[in-house]
Amino acid sequence: MTDHLIDPALLEIMQCPSCTGTLVERPDPPALVCSECGLQYPVRDGIPVMLIDEATPSDQ
Ligand SMILES: [Zn+2]
Predict the structure, then answer these.
(1) Cys-Cys crosslink for 21: which of 9, 16, 31, 50, Cβ 3.0 to 4.6 Å?
(2) SS3 52
(3) Is 60 helix (H, G, I), strand (E, B) or coil?
(4) What's the average pLDDT block by block, 10 residues per block, for the chain (60 residues)?
């Protein structure tokens, strides 16, 4: 069992497709958030949807 949405090793090599920034997990709703541009990529059934068209801007 793990409390990670994504395998940490996988998350480490993933980049934001918009700006190549670092991605951070967000548990609720499950998403990966770019620490650079703030786009949120949804995680559906444990699979991150790394599409700019599917991303939503965060409030930050
Ligand atoms: Zn970004």
Answers:
(1) 16
(2) helix
(3) coil
(4) 81 96 94 96 93 87
